[in-house]
Write a structure and sequence with these properties.
Strand content: 5-15%
Largest sheet: 3 strands, antiparallel
Structural class: alpha+beta
Distance between the termini: 24 Å
InterPro entries: DUF4368 (IPR025378)
Pfam family, one: DUF4368
Helix content: 55-70%
Number of domains: 1
């Protein structure tokens, strides 16, 4: 794992200084697309939840009328209204959480300049130290192993500070 991370960082240090503008554009474009897609999905989910909350309001009102008119028992009313109100409270909380996430995503921008300033401080990385890892890397995601033609492969995704994941193939596209 350490060798993989070290090699990825070395590759970044070789390619980015030669192609800073293209790298910045690549990261900004990718980030904008991902953010737009994620935000749109969250907005759709929040709207779906709002519609269900309004639907639950209508159901609770009808349930109340049915209870008052004697169509359903008090016991049944309590049971059903409790269920509807619990679902409504859960959805209301989910909508509030989604709105917070949407606001955070819309105000957060990828900070390529900050990442590039870290890259500029290094010319060569001889060994991987905790300080270097903390400067460059936000997190590392190790995916489940896959079997392909008898080979065991495991995808490792490095999420860099300020820019997210950087695809090795994208770097190759920079002319390196």
């Amino acid at each position: 794992m350490e060798q993989l991370v070290l090699e990825e960082l070395r590759q970044l240090l070789r390619y980015i200084p030669k192609h800073e503008k293209q790298f910045a554009k690549l990261v900004m474009d990718r980030s904008a697309q991902e953010q737009k897609r994620d935000t749109a999905a969250k907005k759709r989910t929040a709207e779906k939840h709002r519609r269900r909350i309004a639907e639950l309001d209508t159901l609770i009102e009808r349930l109340y009328v049915d209870n008052v008119s004697g169509k359903i028992t008090d016991e049944r009313y309590e049971k059903m209204s409790g269920k509807f109100e619990a679902e409504q409270a859960e959805l209301t909380q989910a909508v509030a959480s989604l709105e917070t996430e949407i606001a955070a995503e819309e105000s957060q921008a990828v900070n390529v300049d900050r990442f590039l300033s870290v890259v500029r401080r290094y010319t060569v990385i001889e060994e991987l130290t905790p300080a270097i890892v903390h400067e460059f890397i936000d997190r590392i995601i190790v995916h489940e192993p896959e079997q392909a033609r008898g080979d065991r492969r495991q995808k490792v995704e490095i999420i860099y500070n300020n820019v997210g994941a950087v695809d090795r193939h994208s770097l190759m596209g920079l002319g390196a």
